[in-house]
Amino acid sequence: MDWQVLTRELSLYLESQVRVGFFGSGVGLSLVLGFGVAYACYYLNSIAKKPQLVASNDRFCRFLEEYCPVVTETYYPTIWCWEGRVQTLLRPFITSRPQVQYRNELIKTADGGQISLDWFDNNDSSYYPDASTRPTVLLLPGLTGTSKESYILHMIHQSETLGYRCVVFNNRGIAGEELLTPRTYCAANTEDLETVIHHVHSLHPSAPLMAAGVSMGGMLLLNYLGKTGRDTPLMAAAIFSAGWNVFESIESLEKPLNWLLFNYYLTTCLQSSISRHRQMLEKLFDMDLVMKARTIREFDKQFTSVMFGYRSIDDYYEDASPCRKLKSVGIPVLCLNSVDDVFSPGHAIPVETAKQNANVALVLTSCGGHIGFLEGIWPRKCTYMDRVFKQFVQAVFEHGNKIFSM
C-alpha cells in the first residue's frame, strides 16, 4: 500500500469536509489551523516553563544543576491536561501501576500499637549485591495513601533500576492491619515516624538512608526534620506536594469547586479508613458525630485534634504546618511544589523562609497540580515528579559527599 498516496487522499478528504461544513469556503480549515497555531504559541509561552529553583546555598544549587538537572529544565505539562485540578484528578487513572512484590513487617510501638511496613528488598540488585550496605529509601504516602498508591509504585520502580531498597511507612490502621490502641495518625505527631526511622536504621546501620514524603507524608517528614535538626539517621529528604500552611490549604479546599472535587471525597476516605476500627475507637470518640463530617476541617475538629490532645483545631493546624519548622531543618531537603496546587496554594509556599536555610531547596513549577506533574502526550509511564525523585536520590546516594560538607 502506498502510504503517501493514502495520506494525501485522506488530507484532501478532510479538507473538503471542513470546507463543506463552512458553506463551501476555506474558512473552516483556516480556523482549525489558526486555533492550533494559537494554542501551540500559548502553550509554549505561558504553560511550558522552567521551574523556579529557590535555594540560598550556592553549593546546593550547583550540586542540583550538575546531578539533578531536571530541576533546571523546562517542564512541558501534558498539552491536553495542564490545568492543576485536571492533572490532580487524572493522575491516578492515567499513570501505570508497576508490579511490586512487598515483604510486610509489623513493628510494635511504645504505646502498644503496631505499624505496618512494606519492604521492597531488591535482592536482585546488581549495583549493590551486599544487602547490608544497599542504599535505602523510606517512602511516606499521602493522607489516606498506602504502599499501593501509583506514585509510590513509581518511586519503587525508579529505585529498583538504580539498585536501591525501599520501605513504605503505612500510617496506623490504613494498610489492613488492626488497631491495637485507639490511636491513628496526624501530620503533626512524629512519634511513629521516629520509631520507623530508627527501626530501619538499626536493621541496616551501614546502609545509606534517605526519605521521600508525598503530600501529608511530606508534611510529616518536614515536621520530623524540623524537630530533629541534624540529629537523624537520614542523609537527605525529598518532599513532593506538601501542604506548607494547613490554614491556607483548608481554606483553598473549602472553595465550592474544590470541595466538590476533592474535599468531600477525601473526607469520606478518612471516614472509611477509621470505620472498620469503630469498635476500638468508639471507646474515646463519638463515632456517629465523626461520620457526619462533610469536610476535612469538620473531621479534624471532631476526631484528629481530639485524638492528639489539642485544645482546638487551630492549635492542631498550627502545629501541623511545616512552614513554621522549616528554619530548623538540618539536612539537605529538596521540595517540589506546583504553584497551581489547590492543596498547597502558591502564595502559601514559604519562599522567604526557605532562603534562610542553606539546607533547603524549593523547586516550583507553574503547572502540575497536586501529585500530578504529568508530561508527554500520553503520560502513563513517567511523570516530572518521578524524574525529580530518581535524579535526586541517585545524586544523594552517589554524590552526596559534595553537599554534606555545607
UniProtKB/TrEMBL annotation:
<dbReference type="InterPro" id="IPR000952">
    <property type="entry name" value="AB_hydrolase_4_CS"/>
</dbReference>
<keyword id="KW-0719">Serine esterase</keyword>
<comment type="similarity">
    <text>Belongs to the AB hydrolase superfamily. AB hydrolase 4 family.</text>
</comment>
<keyword id="KW-1133">Transmembrane helix</keyword>
<dbReference type="GO" id="GO:0046470">
    <property type="term" value="P:phosphatidylcholine metabolic process"/>
</dbReference>
<feature type="active site" description="Charge relay system">
    <location>
        <position position="370"/>
    </location>
</feature>
<feature type="active site" description="Charge relay system">
    <location>
        <position position="341"/>
    </location>
</feature>
<dbReference type="GO" id="GO:0051792">
    <property type="term" value="P:medium-chain fatty acid biosynthetic process"/>
</dbReference>
<dbReference type="GO" id="GO:0016020">
    <property type="term" value="C:membrane"/>
</dbReference>
<dbReference type="InterPro" id="IPR000073">
    <property type="entry name" value="AB_hydrolase_1"/>
</dbReference>
<keyword id="KW-0735">Signal-anchor</keyword>
<dbReference type="Pfam" id="PF00561">
    <property type="entry name" value="Abhydrolase_1"/>
</dbReference>
<dbReference type="GO" id="GO:0008970">
    <property type="term" value="F:phospholipase A1 activity"/>
</dbReference>
<feature type="domain" description="AB hydrolase-1">
    <location>
        <begin position="135"/>
        <end position="376"/>
    </location>
</feature>
<comment type="function">
    <text>Phospholipase that may play a role in phospholipids remodeling. May selectively cleave myristate (C14)-containing phosphatidylcholines through its predominant phospholipase 1 activity, cleaving preferentially acyl groups in sn1 position. In parallel, may have a minor phospholipase 2 activity acting on acyl groups in position sn2. In addition to (C14)-containing phosphatidylcholines, may also act on other medium-chain-containing and oxidatively truncated phospholipids.</text>
</comment>
<feature type="transmembrane region" description="Helical">
    <location>
        <begin position="20"/>
        <end position="44"/>
    </location>
</feature>
<dbReference type="InterPro" id="IPR050960">
    <property type="entry name" value="AB_hydrolase_4_sf"/>
</dbReference>
<keyword id="KW-0472">Membrane</keyword>
<keyword id="KW-0443">Lipid metabolism</keyword>
<dbReference type="InterPro" id="IPR012020">
    <property type="entry name" value="ABHD4"/>
</dbReference>
<keyword id="KW-0812">Transmembrane</keyword>
<keyword id="KW-0378">Hydrolase</keyword>
<protein>
    <recommendedName>
        <fullName>Phospholipase ABHD3</fullName>
        <ecNumber>3.1.1.32</ecNumber>
        <ecNumber>3.1.1.4</ecNumber>
    </recommendedName>
</protein>
<dbReference type="GO" id="GO:0004623">
    <property type="term" value="F:phospholipase A2 activity"/>
</dbReference>
<dbReference type="GO" id="GO:0008126">
    <property type="term" value="F:acetylesterase activity"/>
</dbReference>
<keyword id="KW-1208">Phospholipid metabolism</keyword>
<dbReference type="GO" id="GO:0047372">
    <property type="term" value="F:monoacylglycerol lipase activity"/>
</dbReference>
<feature type="active site" description="Charge relay system">
    <location>
        <position position="215"/>
    </location>
</feature>
<dbReference type="GO" id="GO:0051793">
    <property type="term" value="P:medium-chain fatty acid catabolic process"/>
</dbReference>
<dbReference type="InterPro" id="IPR029058">
    <property type="entry name" value="AB_hydrolase_fold"/>
</dbReference>
